[in-house]
Design brief:
Helix 4 packs across helix 7, helix 8 runs antiparallel to helix 12 and helix 13 runs parallel beside helix 15. Strands 3-4-2-5-1-6-7-8 form an eight-stranded mixed sheet, with helices on both faces. It is 55% helix and 11% strand. The longest helix is centred in the last third of the chain and has 31 residues. It starts with 10 loop residues before the first helix and ends in a 12-residue tail after the last helix. The chain is an alpha/beta fold. Bound molecules: adenosine-5'-triphosphate (ATP) and magnesium ion.
């Protein structure tokens, strides 16, 4: 690290290195994970790799521009990617995660047809598979495992669900697996299976209190649904835990790299900081930080103070303006001053992060004037991954 600056994250080198097979874009909500994952996937494909991007909840226009019109859980070849299809060139597939479908497929693959039908029709299963906290994270990992096993792509770029905390991606799957394999569910299934006297014995053992409370909380019908769900799922016990463990190991294996995405704002960088620390604890490989939506005012040599002073002078001036309305110039100067101040604030929070994690390489992606909703927009984001220009405005 020279003069307080972090090492530069060379994303191109990362995507060109064929040993890298999985890149995971993590970060807190709304920082640009989906955009970054798609931009990295596109750039990697145009640099010759066979890529699949697993997106979660992409904005509709972005999804459309990648040819993702239906949520069918299948990777689709993205049209309009440079070199797609020609010999020796790379290719880009993209898919949107359908968490319910992914869950259904696990059930179908692991239970006999009658049981599978019983589980799929169960109301508790239906709410679990479509809305339980952590299901999306679990299914993203599950899908990642499936894509990896398919061996059809040489690079998988993974977008992560829009959780508030970046850590949810690591924690939620195991929470869900623990729940599904867990004692609470096994306990619930006892009355349904045992029946009669055994049931009474269990009640005497204090279990009645538990079911009593649960009945109040969940309602009798719901509890019955849970019980039948769990007995139907019985054959799969252990399976969820194992699957979560498998993908967890995949995340630690050589060939996987994490990219933490953050906006240059205190909350996002705090989350990024937790995540970086957690990856180190888990000995999971961190490639670096993508600092997204960095404000880069043009004419950075004109300081905020000078710009404001000029605006004030113009406003105070009574002389007729030769170039027409001075109001426009005043507005432009004030806007420039705002941007410069925002850029300075961004620099301060980024420096704070770097002071805490001086060795974490950083790639900066500028804030583009509009949302990113097509391949050209993604390419523009990808340009920030290319040969690194001197990006930072002078102090
Ligand atoms: N560098 C950028 N310049 C301009 N707009 C951007 C940039 N990066 C992302 N955006 C826009 O910000 C919005 C949020 O981005 P994105 O959906 O990638 O975030 P996310 O982290 O995936 O969000 P969520 O946590 O909800 O999944 C989108 O409208 C996207 O087009
Ligand atoms: Mg997203």
């Amino acid at each position: 690290m020279a003069n307080g600056r972090p090492p530069v994250l060379d994303v191109d080198r990362l995507i060109d290195d064929r040993r890298n097979r999985i890149l995971v874009c993590c970060g807190s909500g709304g920082v640009g994970k989906t955009t970054t994952a798609a931009a990295i996937g596109l750039r990697a494909a145009e640099r010759g790799r066979h890529v699949v991007v697993l997106t979660v909840d992409p904005a509709r226009r972005l999804a459309q521009s990648m040819g993702l019109t239906s949520l069918d859980n299948t990777p689709r070849l993205v049209a309009g990617v440079g070199g797609n299809g020609s010999a020796g060139a790379g290719s880009l597939h993209a898919m949107m995660l359908d968490m319910k479908r992914t869950f259904d497929e696990i059930v179908e693959a692991h239970a006999d047809p009658d049981r599978a039908a019983q589980i799929l029709a169960n109301p508790f299963y239906q709410s679990l598979s479509s809305s339980f906290a952590g299901t999306q994270e679990y299914m993203a990992m599950e899908k990642l495992g499936q894509l990896r096993r398919a061996e059809e792509w040489d690079l998988i770029v993974v977008d992560t669900p829009p959780s508030r905390s970046a850590l949810d991606f690591l924690d939620a799957p195991q929470r869900l697996a623990r729940f599904l394999d867990g004692r609470l569910l096994r306990l619930l299934v006892v009355p349904a299976k045992a029946g009669g006297r055994a049931y009474l014995r269990v009640i005497n053992a204090g279990f009645g209190m538990v079911t009593g409370v649960l009945t109040k909380v969940l309602g009798t019908q719901m509890l019955r649904d849970v019980q039948t769900f769990v007995s139907a799922l019985d054959t799969m016990f252990g399976g969820f835990r194992e699957r979560a463990d498998y993908t967890y190991q995949l995340l630690r294996a050589p060939g996987t790299e994490f990219l933490v995405v953050a906006a240059p704002e205190p909350d996002a960088l705090r989350e990024a900081s937790y995540f970086v620390e957690r990856l180190a604890e888990e000995r999971m490989p961190l490639a670096g930080l993508i600092l997204n939506r960095v404000q880069r005012p043009p004419a950075a040599q004109l300081s905020a103070a000078r710009s404001l002073a000029a605006a004030e002078m113009l406003e105070a001036s009574t002389a007729p303006s030769p170039g027409g309305s001075p109001a426009l110039a005043v507005a432009a100067l004030r806007l420039h001053a705002d941007r410069m101040q925002e850029a300075a604030a961004q620099r301060r929070v980024s420096e704070h992060f770097t002071a805490a994690h001086p060795l974490v390489p950083v790639a900066e992606v500028p804030a583009l004037p509009d949302d990113i909703h097509d391949l050209d927009g993604l390419r523009r984001i990808g340009e920030a991954f290319g040969p690194v220009p001197e990006m930072r405005a002078p102090q």
